[in-house]
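Retro notes, structure queue

What went well: the backlog is down to a handful. What didn't: a couple of records were mislabeled last round, so from now on we paste the full input next to the output in the thread. Example, using TetR family transcriptional regulator from Streptomyces filipinensis:
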Amino acid sequence: MNARVRSGERRAEIVGAALEVIAERGYRGASLAAVAERVGLTQQGLLHYFPTKDALLVAVLQDRDRWDAVPDPRWRVDLLASLVEYNAMRPAIIQTFSALLGESVTEDHPARGYFTERYARVRESMAAVLRAEYGDSLPNGLTPERTAPLLVAVMDGLQYQWLLDPESVDMPGAFRDFLRLLGEPVD
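Corresponding output:
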């Protein structure tokens, strides 16, 4: 195996460990030393792959986006329910995303720009999904652009409630109930 492949595998291992540490401690509580320890490196060894904690955070977020792309405008509204069901099978990923999102609302957080841009893309994509399904006006009279932030808020809000009390919050069921409020026939 050549050095480039080994280096790529090592970077992926470090990103995975960083994801775990951030999920457990949040970004501010996560340390490069803790990540390095998980992968059997010194902190200096880890800095060879990621020169700063912020660079490692960006790698974690980019890696997450590879598995969790923003819904495509060609999606149907009913596929969003499948996305929520899929998320319910990945509590660690959802916990990490939620922890980083919560922390990123502060002015100096290194992921603030990432989340601001991501939410703009998500709202735009959700509006396109809604427009493809309903046209310029949903049954409730709102435009897709007015409904998109509400749809995103419901998805994210359900994630927080589910993370806090998974036994009491049926995230996929509650989302299907929300789709019914939009006028969607849901099984």
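Agreed that this is the format going forward. Reviewer comment attached to the example: Residues 43 and 97 are 24 Å apart (CA to CA).
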